[in-house]
Design brief:
The protein has 118 residues and is of the alpha+beta class. The protein has a single domain (24-112), classed as Alpha-Beta Plaits. The two termini are 33 Å apart. The model has no long low-confidence stretch (mean pLDDT 85). It is built from two helices and four strands; from the N terminus they run βαββαβ. β2 and β3 form a beta hairpin. It has a four-stranded antiparallel β-sheet with strand order 2-3-1-4. It has helices spanning 44-53, 83-91, and strands at residues 24-30, 57-65, 70-76, 108-112.
């Protein structure tokens, strides 16, 4: 009787693409302070989204995590989001950003990679 031998194909890195020809970027904003109450149309979360939207299209805006101090975003765009530039723009919102006066002057932005656990 004939038998079939199965082998696993070689793995290789893949580029994440939205289908529009632009690469996707993943990064996390650590606001340092809780921003769950700063969710109005002119408040901290909206101001940060506007800062990101100035250079890229937000595809995914993740939920707040780590006691409402961190948020992960996925963006696409012809111009890559420069993490240091975005971090400076968010910090420039200052110690009293938005209508709830959240201090984001020490916020950090960290680039992430997409990993599929197997």
């Amino acid at each position: 009787m004939a038998s079939i031998t199965r082998t696993h194909p070689a793995t290789h890195a893949i580029n994440i693409d939205s289908g529009h020809g632009y690469p996707l970027q993943i990064f996390t904003v650590d606001y340092i302070n809780a921003v769950n109450a700063a969710n109005g149309p002119e408040d901290t979360q909206a101001l940060v989204a506007q800062s990101i939207g100035a250079t890229a299209q937000i595809i995914v805006m993740g939920p707040l995590g780590n006691s409402n101090t961190e948020q992960t975003f996925v963006t696409e765009g012809a111009d890559n989001v420069v993490v240091a530039t975005l971090q400076a723009a968010i910090r420039a919102l200052g110690t009293a950003s938005g209508t709830t006066d959240v201090d984001v002057s020490t916020a950090t932005v960290t680039a992430k990679t997409f990993v599929v656990a197997v």
